[in-house]
Amino acid sequence: MVRYYYAWAPLVVAGTVVLLSLPWLGLIALMIFALVALIALPALAVAVVAVPYLIGRAISRRWRERSGARQPSAALSLAARRNA
Fold it and tell me: How far apart are CA 54 and CA 61, in angstroms?
């Protein structure tokens, strides 16, 4: 059965080359590539901005934990202490 598919391989490759060489299909492929690029560019920009920001927050959080500085308690926990 696998040999049967191998017999079709040259026909599939030749058909693909012929279809992609048609100008209107090339234009469609160009438009799809442009659309993908327009979607990927903002995603890349967000990643370039967000990653350093998140790394900076993680580092500052680690420094505060190591310095032993007390974090201000939330108002809810203060109310819970008064009622206890």
Answer: 11
pLDDT in tens, 18-41: 877 888 877 888 888 899 999 999
Helix segments in 1-84, DSSP class H: 2-21, 23-67, 75-83
What gap in Å lies between CA 71 and CA 65, rounded to an integer?
A: 9
Inter-helix orientation angle 2-21/23-67, to 10°? 100
**One-letter amino acid for residue 48 of the chain:** V
**Percent share of the chain, pLDDT over 70:** 75
- The whole-model pTM stands at 0.39
